[in-house]
Amino acid sequence: MSTIHRIVYAFGHRTLPAVAANKIQTNPLIRKMSAASSTSTSAVLATESFSKGLIIINRPKALNAINLEMVRKIYKHLRKCETSKSLVIIKGTGDKSFCAGGDVRAIVEQGPTEESKSFFREEYTTNALIGNYKIPYIALIDGIVMGGGVGLSVHGKYRVATERTLFAMPETAIGLFPDVGGSHFLPRLEGKLGLYLGLTGQRLKGDDVLKAGVATHYCESAKLSKLEQDLLNCGDSEEVPDILQKYHKPTAKDFLLKPHLEQINKCFTAECVEEIIENLQKDGSEWANKTLETLGKMSPLALKVTFHQLELGGKLSLMQCLKMEYRMVVRHLQKSDFKEGVRALLIDKDQKPKWLIPRLEDISDEFVLEYFKKLPDTEELKL
Fold this sequence. Notes:
Layout: H1 3-7, H2 23-26, H3 28-37, E1 44-47, E2 52-57, H4 68-82, E3 87-92, E4 97-99, H5 104-110, H6 114-131, E5 137-141, E6 144-146, H7 148-151, E7 158-161, E8 166-168, H8 182-185, H9 193-200, E9 204-205, H10 208-211, E10 217-218, H11 224-232, H12 240-247, H13 261-267, H14 273-283, H15 286-297, H16 300-313, H17 318-334, H18 338-347, H19 365-369
Parallel strand pairs: 2-3, 3-5, 4-6, 5-7, 6-8, 7-10
Antiparallel strand pairs: 1-2, 8-9
Helix pairs in contact: 4-6, 5-18, 6-17, 9-16, 11-12, 14-15
């Protein structure tokens, strides 16, 4: 089992930084929050003290994976901070993970219940809020950032990666699709890079996350606490760009995928997934063969649904994308490879999923389009 499959959607505390002789340190609410964060069992820690907002995803033993209760706490705090604070910082406890995604095991075991639908509905609503946030939103994406963790970061104005950042959208491996607004941000990456990442679940590490366009800044993890302190102590939000730029020190190395960008653009420029497969077979390189092997492990249905999703998403707003994705996920809860993918990779871990339709060529366009049809008006995502 690959690393990405072990950590996809899996479930030392880090306290607030000590700040020497300044107004943050003297604020009693900040001091109280700092002390509590080292012992608190709350899965989301949040402070509203002074003029800044801070959210800490505090579930380190579960790689800071999120559930419905956590989503609700994050959303509530974001709404409150938007009208009362000058900026918001969000980060994860520990140095392993910002947020590894959502508790999909619990979701598929529940089935298409109101609670499982509520998780996605409220998660996507939170993604929409972040994408339209009125004050600076700064995500410190130190460690694993996948699935739901991407949704809590990528739509914000600032995303700060470190050398420990590990990004991926690996949903096709579990019979799902790159949601949380994946249909919006992936098609807007350079060339066909987003489609490649969405179909293959390719991992990106460190400042490759920046060079791909997923992160906006890169800071060494050893300096992340100092960056956070400076942001919490800045006079107003207009100082945020300069502070981030001060710590922005990307490496000089080339983007990991730079040698293959031309191949990605050529092979993934296609009218359907089958054509991508044919292009890779014609290419015949070691990279193409490895990509074929990777795609061969993914749910054929998820590949076709994702291809159509990203094709549509490139022409839609974030709000439209999230509404579309909610329709898709409700139908995936009802009938798809989602449950079987989670079983094979995360529950039984036999790595032998029995896909609903094993061959790409047996999946009709009509069947794929069923996942995109409108829900009854009372069930549609309201944003």
